[in-house]
Specification:
Two copies of one chain form a homodimer. Helix content of chain A is 34%, strand content 25%. The first copy, chain A, has four helices and four strands. Chain A has a three-stranded antiparallel sheet, with no helix packed on it. The relative contact order of chain A is 0.24.
């Protein structure tokens, strides 16, 4: 299954809150992610706020579109948006630009 | 299996070379990674040279130690080292500091 990696930046003054929220993601948000094909999905945070997302999915654009169409995602992203830098007012999930995979060992 | 994410920085003027080398990693390097427990290991490159590593392994410190003890790794890392920024003369694999995983959905 294809692998996807994206980067975002969490604001320094919201790091603790970001961690807390992601230790207790709403069950309906987890269900929506599962239902729309997000598999083995991890978020990793560096101390300066750089956030790495990694997931496996057959078609990332389709998984993003399906997730964006859910009501719970709109509520979740609206609550997360103020914690991010440089989104120009957009939702965090609109800034998930995939990096290029240059190596893979199964 | 625990998931590990680390970041490195490839020099802008070596990006093409880095990509080429990682499209043709030596078979004995791949064998050594497999033998020392590196699983589902990907490298993702952003256009500015930021490199994201992701892998799954039971014990990352043990996997790093075992890999560092191989002869092929020493040769590989010596050839890769000049392509990286900010390693202070060290080998790239000594700069693989794991980020904190703050979320996971299986």
């Amino acid at each position: 299954m294809p692998r996807v990696c994206f980067l975002l930046k969490v604001r320094q003054d919201r790091l603790a809150e970001y961690r807390e929220r992601h230790a207790a993601v709403w069950p309906e948000m987890l269900d929506a992610l599962r239902d729309t094909g997000w598999r083995n999905y991890s978020l990793f945070l560096r101390e300066d706020g750089l956030l790495v997302g990694y997931l496996e999915t057959d078609d990332f654009e389709a998984a993003q579109r399906a997730m964006a169409a859910t009501e719970v995602n709109a509520r979740w992203q609206a609550e997360m948006a103020p914690m991010f830098e440089g989104l120009d007012g957009g939702a965090p999930d609109s800034g998930m630009t995939p990096l290029t995979e240059v190596f893979h060992l199964p």
